[in-house]
Structures are given as C-alpha cells and as structure tokens.
Amino acid sequence: VDVASREKVAEIPVGGQPNDVTFHPDGGWAYVSNRLDDTVSVIDTVAREVVATIPVGNEPHGLLTDREGRLLYVLNSSIDSISVINTRSLKEVKRLEASRNPWALALSPDGSQILVANALSRLVPFREPPLSEVTVIDTQRAVVEYRREVPGANLMIGVAWHPSGQYGLATLNRTKNMVPMTRLLQGWTITNGLAVVWRDGRVDQVLLDEPTMAFPDPTSVAITHDGNFALVTSSGSNRIAVVDLQKLISMLQQATEEERERILPNHMGKATEFVVKHLETRDSPRGIRIAPDGRTAWVADALDDSLGIIDLEQMEIVGRVDLGGPREITQARFGERLFHSANITFQRQFTCASCHPDGHVDGLTYDIEADGIGVNPVDNRTLRGILDTAPFKWEGTNPSLSRQCGARLAVFFTRIQPFNPDELAAVDHYVCTIPRPPNRYRPLGAELTEAQRRGKLMFERTHTNDGADHSQTGPVHHVSSTADVHRPPVARRGYPELAGHPRRVRHAAPEQHLRFGALPAQRDGRNPGRDLDHV
Amino acid sequence: VYTDWEHFTTADGLPNDHIFAVKVDGHRVWVGTEDGLACYDKRTGKFQTWKEEDGLPWRVVSALDVDPKTGDLWIGLFGGGLTRFSAGRFDHFNQLNSGLVNDVVYGVAVENDHIWAATTAGASRYNMVSRNWKIFTEKNAPMEEIWNYGVSYNDGRVYLGVWGSGVLEFDVATERWNVYLDPDGEMEINLNRDDGIVHVITTGTSYVDKILWISTYFGMSRYDGRNWRGYYAHETGPAQRFRQRGQRPQRERSLVRDGSRYRGDCRLSHRYVGDLHDGPATRRGQAVIQRGERVLKTYDLERCLPHNFALWVEFDGDDVWVGTSKGLARARGTGYYPRLKEVQP
Asked: Taking CB atoms and an 8 Å limit, are A531 and B97 in contact across chains?
C-alpha cells in the first residue's frame, strides 16, 4: 500500500495463511508469518518479492525484530514457543518458552525488552480462574527474563509500549467462567479491557466496557508517539476506543492498593473516565498501527478487506484503502461477520469468536447448565474441522449445528433474539468452513513413528495385559453415536452435598482430531496433560 | 590454596542444609537442596528460595544445569522427574507425562538444543525445539546396567557415568557410542596399572580441555585420549576418604577440574585438602598440602568447609562453591595459588 496515494499498489504472494508482518529496521526487508506452512516469508521491499522462506515452529503469528534488526522473534502460537532467527543467516538460533498461544509482541522504546502477549491462560487447576501471562524478553541476551502474571485475564492478543518506556498496554478479556452462567442478564460473563504492564513488574487491569455497551473482543492496541492516547480495536463491535492515557494513569495512581487489585479490574463504570472517544470502523477491526510520522494510524478492518486511516489530530477516520476483497458477500463471509459480531449478544458483551477465537478454543471451562450452582463444568471445544461430526455438545444432545447455534445459543448464552433463519444458515455454513490444521505430528502420507506405532497398537488393542476384553475403542476419527458414561460425582467448593451423587450421562465420543491442540483434554477441563497431542 | 571461606546455611536463607547441586550462572548461584531450590544473588548477597508450595514439583533437587541459549534452568529431581525453570515458571516432566525414562534423576546436562537426564533406569535425551524424547537403556545403548549416576556434556561429547557400566561416550555429530570399562574387572585393585578406568561403578564424569575425568567407587581416572591414569586413596591423601563415604563423590570430579588449572598436569603432587577441624561448633578447619602422603604444610583456618561430606563443587572464576551436608560454602580465590609454576612437559 502506497501510504501517500493511499492505494494498494501490489500484491505479493507469500505462504499459506499469512497472519502478521513486520519490517527490518532498515526498511529493506519485510517478514511475514505464514501460519499454515509454519514458515516466515522474507520479502525484498524494493523488488516486492519473497526472497527467502524460513522454517519456524507451528502456526507462527506475531513477529518482530530487535532494534538493531539482528534477531527476528517469531511467536509459534500453537506450540507456545518463540523462534529466534538470525536475520543475517536466516537460521533459527534458539527457541524460547512462551506461555500458551503467544500472539503479539512489542519492543520497548529503548530496545531492551520485548513484551509478548499470550492469548490463552496458563493451564490452571480444576475450578480455578484463568491466569494469563505477559512474557518479557531481554533482547540483549535474547532470553525470557520475566513472566508477568495477569490473574483472571484471558485472550491477551494485542500489546504496545508507551513511548516513555514506563509501561506497556495489552488487551485482555476477563471471562467469569467460574460463575455458573444461569442467565447473562442477571450478571456478566465476559468483560473486556486493558492490562497496564509496568516496567517494575506490576500489572494493573482496567475495563473498556460500559454498563450497557461492552467493548467485545479487544484485539489490538497502538499508542500515539506523543504518548497521550492509546487506540484499541474492538473486533466484536466495530469500534476503536480512544484512551486518554494521562487520565488512565492518573486514575490508577490515585487509587488505593485495594482498588487497583480488586475493584478497578472489574469496574464497568470507569471507562467513561478515560475513554474519550469511540471511532466507528468497518467489519472486525483488528491490527492497528501508528505511522512512523505519527500523524496517522492505520487499522485493518479484517472482514471488510480494507484499511481505515485515522487522522490523529482530528482523531477521525479520514480515509480508506480497499485491498481488493470480493465484491459479493458470500454466505461464508456473511456468516464469518456474524460469528465475529457482538450484535447477537445482550449488551454486546461477546461474540462467537470470544470463546472460539480463530474458530478454536479459549482454553476455558464453563458451567453453562441451568442449575445455577456450578455442578456441571464443561471444557470448551474447538470448531476446527467440525463439519460432519454431529451430534454436538459434550453429551451429544444437539443433533445439528443449527440447533446448537440457534435456539440453544440464545437460551444459554446470548439472551436476546436468536439469529434469524438466514443468519443461522450463514453462521452454520461459516463454522463448517473452519479448517482443521494440518497434522504436524504426522504429515500426509508419512509413516508412523516408532512411538506412534506403539500408540496405535495400544489404541486398537482388544485385550488388556491381563487378558480381559478391552474392545471399548471405536474408529480413530469419529464416533457418531453416544455412549453411557458413569460420571463420578463432582463436589463443588461450598456444595459438599452434591458429592456422592454420581450422574449417568451420555457422552458424544470426543473426536480425536478435534482435540488436537485443544487442551485441557477432559470434558470438564481436568487432566490438562500434554499426552493427547502425541496420540 | 583456598583460605578465605564463607558459609551459607538455613540461617542465611537456604531452604535446607543438605546441598546436592550447585550451578553458577553469571551473578546467580543456583543451589539444589534436599528440600527446595535456592538462588543466591551475588550482587545483593540474598537468597531466593522455592519449595513445593512455591511450584517446585518435588522437594529434592539433585542436579542442575543452565541452558546457555535460553537462560532456562534445568532441574533434576530425586524421585520427582525433571523440571525446567523458565523465568519463574516450572514446567514438569516425569515418567508419566513425558519421555523421561524414570523419575529418579541423578544428573542433568544441556547439550546444544537437548537436555540429558541421567536416571536410575536409563538416560533420556529431550530435544527442546522439536520436543521429542529419546530414551537410552540396555536395549539401544551399550549400557550393561541402566543405573545412570551422572551426565556431562562438553565439546561435542556426552558422557554418562553408569553404575556397573563404566562410562558411555556419545558423539553428538555421529550419534555413536563408545564405552570405557575396567579392563581387569577388579574392584579396589588395578592389576595392570593405568590400563583403563579404575572400575565400572562410575558416578561422575567431566570432559574439560580434551581430558576426561571419571570418579568411581574405588578411585578416580583420567584419560587424555591416549593414556589412562588412576588415582587411589592410599596414594593421594585424605581427600580420597570422601569417596568411600559419599555415595556420589562429585568431589573428585571437582578436584579434577581443579587439576585442569595445573595446566592439565595429572600428577596432583600438590594437594589441597579442606578438612573439618573442631566440628560444626567452631567451623574451623585446616588446609593441608601434601606430596603423596608427605605433608608439606598445614594451614589452620578460621573457616573451612562446613562439613567434609561434600557432594558438589562448582568453579566460579577463581572462586569455588562447595555443597556439603551442613550447608553451602564459598571459597574466595583471590590470590589463588600465586606461586604456581607451569609444569614443563
């Protein structure tokens, strides 16, 4: 895109599912993460062509160089690691451990630190709230130096440093998955906001929601060069919040310790004190950046295939670059927009994508039973490759996606009018297009490894070691029927009387391929082991 | 001769006084104890500690190594498997959730992008990038016994010290094994002097400056790639008594690293011994310099080793850290052996 003429001037073929882009500090090279191929494309920015392709870890997303352009950091989102690439040799020199689903990263103004926002909470014990992490890289040594904990937060996918270097901002949501979700309108389920990650390790949290108008799916954040404003995109409500940072920081500094720790992270009345404006965008604004001259900001309206241009002096959207998406809105695209829109939810608290980011999982366990006492926690399930895997719901009680996404969604989740028939058809159609990721453990046509052969034998065995019949396992890929499972009693904290009453339920057999990369592994979210990945 | 000793015990912030492992990483000194992990910050003089309630997966820390690339600390847990300590986060690997062959881990060593674990039922090699495990036992390595006491890596070679199987050398480039066994098969005697490793019950290995040092239950061995040399208690003085009392005499290994300071000379004609003098009440001690069994000089010290039962020595520039059963000791190496003469070949 030519920023002067504000037009698209070229298209450069890269790898599969390009997700993020960054430049070498000298401007001569651009690096693009190809999520499908597990590679990074190196683009000669003058020739506008890919000149090299670097293999990295699984499903790379965010990427960034250090200040000198010596090392390129690539976030391998599905294996929770960070590839460190020597930009001269284009070889991976080391791999660092991130938290879960590292997604976005930002370099401190002095170049000494990189903040990495991780999309998913750490694996936490059963019935404990999420605990997210902002990982801090020391760029001089290229090692992970700190892990800043962000309690109660999830889906941290945007991050930026303040020009002062005193703090960074990271987007987050606070999902109240520990609360029995009896009725959305009786309380809240998901709130959305920012983490203020101070250089000394302190982390504050504030909300961008207002009581009757939430700020669903905060996705990206950019800070103006003068340090006065932060621009935060809400992918679910097609808005950008303009945050007055002096007001925000002043509010935090005037608050008591108790308020900073317990009140402000959950206070839905505070955003009006520091959000000075909302800008309306096109569909699903995600990435946002300030131009090097500091005069404009550019926002990617992902489901409109366009870039919005914000004049930072007027603080208005003043232009748009059409990236050449299809003119006709297909049913799949219509469904995708609905999937990523909070218009279907009471007070626009969340979207389908809030719990299924990228059609996958948010890694949380919810209690969505109508009992209201938290006796039936269930782990979130991925939508990747869901086509032809009916029946749905853990217990297999929903025969079709239309039932799952229609009336049931309205009753249990969204609490306003459900999708109309056209919308429902479009959402279902879109959900069925969400692809299953390639199997990194066994590429198509590859022989089984030695360990996989052993696992296959165990998986398919008909007798246990002591000779007992053990033919309980079904086909490898999918079982369309349900099976009775004698579920052990679950004693919820504070409700000991519920223990000792085992419940007989019917389980839809978990589709093994749907579990790929979707920890934890059990229906209620327990057993967060990594062993299933090896299956 | 180390004469300037400093002691660290639970009174100073250690979680436990039984010290099993020490690893220096810049200003940090990692200490593995019988009940927790500690980190001594040389800049502040303060300890930070982690016990099970702080996330350490198992109380007994038996081995430590630092990945120089990532800065992560790898921790062997005696009965609890292996854990990676990455910027405050513990990642636990054990025989149920990973390819670690056994949870009783005696030694760990970082080799390029791999971590090795010496366990009581074989050795495991974990690729930290691909996250694949490889297990080595009698089935796929020349391991006559599988009780792996120690592992070390340097200069392209991994060395496993195995109870009853001598030393196994793994060439990283070719992934081939080489084995060092006791040619005469005798325990406390060597029928043919310097014909090979003293005995096949080995506990620790160290490969420094192309010299392989091996500690065994019955003496210490040195191998320069051409010639072997054995060291026995009755020839080398009181320090060797250690070996017979300690189950895992890493001390000899440390001495051999000490030996490398003597320009690689193996004669050890000058010996330094820190010995407990009056017991823990006074913590006084002696430094004894011997040639063979002849005492050349004895220094009385206000402070010496906290105890003679020493399982680990870690060099830190000219300083040395010693883990004992009564705490951790640091000896300052200022003016370290100033009159040392270069040995003429």
From this structure: yes
